[in-house]
Amino acid sequence: MATRLLLISDTHVPQRARRLPDQVWQAVDEADLVLHAGDWVHLSLFEELSERARDLRGVYGNNDGDALRRVLPEVMHETIEGIRFSMVHETGDAPSRHTRMDAAFPDTDVLVFGHSHIPWDTVSPAGMRLLNPGSPTDRRRQPAHTYLTALASEGQLHDVTLVAVTPD
């Protein structure tokens, strides 16, 4: 069996956008599991995603207040289709990220993170895959708003795709 994943982060609703783009909601509908790496900003988005997604996992980010921190962990660890996933919002500066994350998450195959709004897909020296989906609502200095999709199956992560969000 395979699990279709949607990875999002830094949605910043309603600060940076009033709502998620329709394209993202369509991706939510198509996913078996949505992973949100923090900076939701308001509990209402968490509630809306919880109602609509087949399955949802998330962590809180630095812009998330007490209401979100009461319902979400800072760090998530979960095995999905035999793949050991971890998720956290912040990983610090890029130059030493791989070494620090290898030390912080030694039993992780895939680390999902956010904060920078910069899409990221690399492999650490220890073999851990690091994925940042960017932001579907606040691109900052990036050429496009983005999210990631992937397929988890039989202990392997396949078809990791960075998707640019087209304006509604």
From TrEMBL:
Keywords on record:
Metal-binding
- Cofactor(s) needed by this chain: a divalent metal cation
A single GO molecular-function term is: hydrolase activity
Listed EC numbers: 3.1.4.-
Q: Which residues belong to any copy of the Calcineurin-like phosphoesterase domain?
A: 4-150
Family per record = Belongs to the metallophosphoesterase superfamily. YfcE family.
The entry's protein name is Phosphoesterase
Organism source for this protein? Cryobacterium arcticum
